[in-house]
Fold this sequence. Notes:
Blueprint: E1 2-4, H1 8-20, E2 26-27, E3 30-31, E4 39-44, H2 59-68, E5 73-75, E6 82-84, E7 87-92, E8 98-103, H3 117-125, H4 139-143, E9 146-153, E10 156-161, H5 168-171, H6 183-188, E11 203-209, E12 213-218, E13 231-236, H7 240-248, E14 254-255, H8 263-268, E15 272-276, E16 280-286, H9 297-305, H10 309-317, E17 321-323, H11 346-355, E18 360-366, H12 377-389, E19 394-400, H13 402-411, E20 416-422, H14 428-432, H15 450-461, H16 466-481, E21 485-491, E22 493-497, E23 501-503, E24 517-519
Parallel strand pairs: 4-13, 4-14, 18-19, 18-20
Antiparallel strand pairs: 1-11, 2-3, 5-6, 7-8, 8-10, 9-10, 11-12, 12-13, 14-22, 15-22, 16-20, 16-21, 17-21, 23-24
Amino acid sequence: MKFFTSKTLLAAALSVVFAAGTVASVANGAPMSRKAEDNLFYATSTEPLGLDPALVDDNDSGNMNINMYESLLKFEHNGTGILPALAKSWTISDDGLVYTFKLQEGVKFHDGTPFNAEAVKFNYDRQKPENRVAKMSYAELVLGNVVETKVVDEYTVQITLKERSTPFLRNMAMAFAAPIASPTALKKFNNNLMENPVGTGPYKFVAWDKGQQLIVTRFDDYWGEKPPVQNIVYRIMKETAARVVALKNGEVDIINGLDANVIDEIKKSGNKVFQTEGNNTNYMVYNCRDGYITADRDVREAIAQAINVPEMAKSLYKEYSTPAHSFFPPLLEGYDKNNQAPKYNPEAAKKTLAAKGIKELTILTYSNSRAYNSVGGQVLAEAVQNYLSKVGVKVKIDVYDWGTFRAKILTDKWDLAFIGWIGDNGDPDNYINILASPDPIANQGLWQNKEFIDIINKATKVPDGKERTALYKKADAVLLKDVGVLPISHAKTMAAYRPVVEGQIIHPQGHFYFTEVSKKAK
């Protein structure tokens, strides 16, 4: 299925690029470049769920949206410090409740609509509780504390909070919920830009051939610094081996979703591997809804005791992931080496599970690789299946592609599932707050613990420092003691690329900013 903008010819032209490695066509009277360095090909394992930043929560959607949309603030080049973006400055009231943002002037959306304070208000009001729709999973995290978004004048907007919020400014730089979309486009497309993105970013949407590729091109009227590369082709290639071959053959320039078995092959072919410690957690979810056997804390502990997490993680991911004993990764505030998930104890597990009469469990998982799980959900599920068989439990595995899996985790019956989290803004609240949420899109197992929720709510208001860090360490300890989830691993952030690509391959918070890379001629 294909979705095209008015520049259908450009999409057709880039389809030629995709097949032959050159560009030779015309789009709406504008000649397309024949230069290889003007066209960057990026291959991913997973198709974006959509292109409306208020309606998605997956990394691949985020990768595209951060290049087409902008937020009031942005992250610094090499970290999660806050810099001006669509807001050029801001002030905070003495009580910490009122944020006044002065906006950039002369900025236009891709459809020509002027950016102003009314546009900010339209986007944030759209995500207020009374207007919110089911897919707005980030709205509560980013904007749930907002009482009012007020237009002061054309280029001044004032946001009032219910309570102090230490992470609020960091939230305003995120790829989800915070970005500003064209009000004109939102009205035109019935408040849904999943297939018709219109932002103010350096790249604008051209076409999406579902299951194949997504194309964006440089926005000539962009208000900021123009990106080095003209066209980006985001190619969908589910199989890791296919992505590696495409990189080796020069058909694509950057690939993600690497597993330990392909690293040597990539390097031997003359290509490069980028890697750094990851801000992510790969974890197992227990279905804690009423009526499920995994709602029982003792059952959850027994299942955890049946799985040798360090052994499993090392076997599946080798040195490219660290076995997890805490929900927080070591590089994040809130991590405590003394916080430990249940230890491997198959005899105790077998005894408890037998006493509870548990002989069968159902695992729901995904098929493709993820940034936090390079081997894919099915391989991980089969490893857990093997461990549970040793304690007398038969496991049925239901496997779906990522999009279907995300839908079925909300509707189907399951006992265990696999998911992961990649930190959005470097703040511990963003990282662990999801497990305090009553929204099953964010908190898939619906584990709810009052002590945990109270700690999270308190920590959000406490200024950065030792007291706040201690609260997140305590929250992590409560989570692990109650076995709300089972942390499995923290993956290194990785990508492979051709030597012709230069610049920042991956931002520290895990996204690909195409403005940060350039491509040399062969």
